[in-house]
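Form 7-S
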Amino acid sequence: MPAQLPTTIDAVISRMEEIDAELDPRDGVACFNRVYLKVTKLVKEHVTVGTFKDNAFLERMDVIFAGHYLKNVDAAKAGRRAEVPWQPLFAARGNRVIWPIQFALAGMNAHINHDLALAVVETCKERNTAPEVPPVHEDFEKVNDLLASVEAEIRAEFELQIVKIATGPAEDLKHAVTSFSMSTARETAWVNATQLWAARNNPAEYAFHLTAIAGGVNATSTMILAPVVPPPAG
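Output:
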């Protein structure tokens, strides 16, 4: 029987903390989970103080969004294959030549470029609204500023570490890492969400869009996760 998915943002945070405690810190999923836990705590703080115009919607979308990631964690734990967008990360999670930032960005790519669009659609359906109805898009945009600070933090740490390796491999690694932008991913996620929303009553068209999105995300994660040179010890 599949594990029960969290229904509150506090339960999401607790579940991510459990995952963090269970996994080897070098595990690729653990690398992404640490970043995602930080982001989720940040979103919770802003929901609590009322940053968003519709805090209830934003919190519910955050919970639905997290559920897509957690379903893949549960599937892997049960020996089942991850969904197409998540397959590169779960397949490479034990590769110690891949840097933590590569794992983190591959997870963000899968989660934002695929799962976020689904979360927008599912939350709008549940709450009887639509992506174009205010303040859905405005609140969605506010999250970008929160995520930008987290992305800048992990990239700054990466820049400090990469100076320890030779120029050639460093440039190859930089290329893989700079191929992903969180803000661009969220912009793409919004476009994907509006396309899926428009196709919501046409199963064939909806499936076509979703398959195309999943395939593109899989290809991008595969590129992000290209092994170049082992990260420095410690």
